[in-house]
Phage-like baseplate assembly protein (Burkholderia lata), 966 residues
Amino acid sequence: MNVTEILRAFVSALDQNNRAIRFHWGRHQEALARVLVPQSIDLTEGLCTGIEGHLTCLSSRPDLPLSTFLGLPLSVQLMTDRGKPYPINGIITDVRAGQSDGSLTCVQLTLRDALGILEQRVNSRTFRSTSVPDILETLLHEWQQRSSALAQAFDFELVLDRNQYPKREQTRQAGESDAAFIRRLCRRDGIFWYARAGKHDGAATDTPVHTLVFCDDPTKLPQAAAGQVPYHRGSQSRERDAVTLWSTARALTPGSVRRSSWDYKAGRMAQSEQETIVDQGEAGNDLAKLLANSVIDVPHAGDSDADQERLAKARILAHERRAECVYAASDVRDVSPGFWFTLLGHPEVDTRPDEQRQFVITSLHHRATNNYSKALDERAQALFAASRWSFDTLPAEEEGAGVRYENTFTCVRRGVPLTPAYDPRVDLPPVHPFTAKVVGQDGEEVHCDEFGRIKVQILGLRADDHTHAQGAGTSGTERDSAWVRWVSPWAGPNYGMDMLPRAGMEVLIDHLHGDPDKMIVTGVLHGGPNMPTTFSHTGSLPGNRYLSGIKTKEVKADRYNQLRFDDTPGQISSQLASEHTHTQLNLGYLTEPRDEGKGAPRGDGLEARTDAQAVIRAAKGVYVTAQQQGRAEGKMLERTALQTLIEQLQELVRNLGDASAANDAENTDLARIEKITSQIKGWDAGSNVDQGGGGGGGGGGGAPMVAIEGPAGVTVASEDAMVLGAQTNIDAVSIGNTQISAGRRLLMRVGDWMSAFAAKGMTLVTAEGKLRIEAHKEDVVVKAAKRIILEAGEEIVFRSPKVNTQASDEASINGGSSYSQWNGGGVVHGTSGVWREHAASHSLVGPDNKPVKAPDPLTFKELEQQDSLAVVLRSHPEDGRPLAYEPYTLYKGSAKIADGVTDEHGQLIIANHQKGTSSYTVKLHNGHEIDVPVKEEGLTDDEQLAAQGWRAVDGDPESRQRHAEG
């Protein structure tokens, strides 16, 4: 054989037209069919795993451009026992050149389905208000739109009941590949998937296409091309490919699942339980009860109670799938995962009903070598060994056949659930805290719902990934996320600590249970446009590093409210402030707002200030005091000094009132000052320092009064007017002097009557102008125990229609050196000058005299107006002598209320009589006591006798009657 013949034979050997394993390159078939031919294959297919495998090839070209093959769709065709090719379609993702002997080169290809390819596309994105089928559809369409190579190589089909998949508020792809994201969603929702050759609708195409099928109902899977598959043991002679190994397996699985998920909206745990229907034998069932699969899911795992049940059912179905399966081997080439076949000829399976002899393949492993000549095969094996490529040995078929093929597969009875397992500990991607930006509606700085949840924008997402949702996810608006809860230091039923993050703030996002769909805001971060707080709009860090607190910002403006703490060494202070009317409460070491840590001192203590109104309102009293209470120790209402002082003032009022009454100048009404004293004494009764409410005083404590005390003085001043008023009494009392000065006029207005009393003297002086004393409807009475001196620099004028001058002993008039004396002994006139009288006539008719007229007693009306009683004391009843100028002591009960002297009529006045007082007692200087009964209405007979002066022995009415009857 010459060289030409050798080359022709070699080229013929690489022709794949008559081979059991063939490649079909679609539109590239003519160019590549003779360039690269399969020598062996090692491929796996499976539900929820896809297609992946290695194709070992031979080529006559040692200089193959390897990158030419990357991304090309390829159909691996296995010739069946019927002589028809059965395709396994995928996409080449890896090309590896082996050794070459000059005329023969080995090459290895890696074939994967589209989902396997997208394992390398890592992305982060957000889907809003979208169901899992919609997400799958969006992603798969995008793959086709963004890659023409992928678009011509794969198709997809969703065999799903869309009605059972809720639209979730937010689903995130979180730094994971597209493939991992799809697998996670499908596993969670109980969707299985697989790849099959051809387009989803079966349409013919010139490109090797495979379809990704997503399904949730195993009864909808198609029948395999093999249809009915025979079972043959060992190497029995047979006409058709057959199953050669059939091994049934059982696995112990949990007998129940329990899923709990916190529903924070309802404030309860949503729980679902599902039990298996698989019979695992007596001991197995007992163990299965123990192997209950109880998991606490993420909060709000299901969209509803029904959805929660659906997810729990998916978990138990996944366990039931593992409970029973078949491990098998065959040389049947036209079966694939996702298809079902009927097994024939198996001694045990044949005893079952027809529907129980149907099986769905769940995974399949192809291993085969092509039917080349022995010489070519030996050369190929030498190149493989030189390339360090090793392969499992396949069982040989009939001697001389030159074809070796075997597959191993797993299958389950048709109708058994194919739900994939989902374990969040395994299937969730690793997530870590990241930052996001708070967003809201247009123009709204604070955006939240009734639960206080906010919206965020995840930074760094690609805008073109979100065009399908009109930008939701990257729009910078409230459409970018679902409502997100945020961590608060304290959150109770309608109480807690709430400071809603605002639009534009940078927040730290973490994930509940490590689920990327369950975001939670754990904090807010400073940086960039959100620099640290400048309290009072002044200073910055690090200069003001000793300041801390809370500062808010007025929505759509720049004013602030703040609670600021200043921990500057030796200068600590606190401030509660609102920039509205510059209202502040400043405590401690007060300074101007600090800049670079420095602020001019403003004082020490407490300052409450505002440019508007200020009110201190306390329903149980206000106590303003300058009394020292060191280190804030002691009771809040510590008021011993105030109580002592008010008691001293009350005693002074009492003593001066008694003296005033004793001198006919009216007693003082003590009721109000006594009430104030009592209220001060029992002020904190009922509070936590006197919970029993005794307080040592009356009134039950907590009187709504105001007390102001200043040990060194109290100043109340106004640049305008001041009003001091009371609904009842005003008691102005000082143990020392009470000094009233007016720069212009002192005007005193009294609606009833006025009494002024001085124990040791009174001076009334006007330096300029008149001193006028008038009584417009009654008398003017001027009395003195000794003399009344009227002195004038020019003249004393008595002007009246009638002038009556009376003197009980003597009246004298002196004018210059002349005089006139009038007394009981006569009238004496004297003058050193002329006595001149002018009269129409003179009449001297003999001696005469006239007694001095006593002043009229007080009228009943006057007594009533003054709340007073008038009592006349007599030596005997009825016509007894009035006890004029008789010293007495007046008692109300056992309490002495006045000392005094009766007037010239024997009359005494009981001032400030209080209605309801039934009687008084008058004690004379000689020890005799006279009962004075008081009757508001008509008197009884006994009371009338008592009023007339008739006395009773020990108050016995009968003895009074006997005295009266005499």
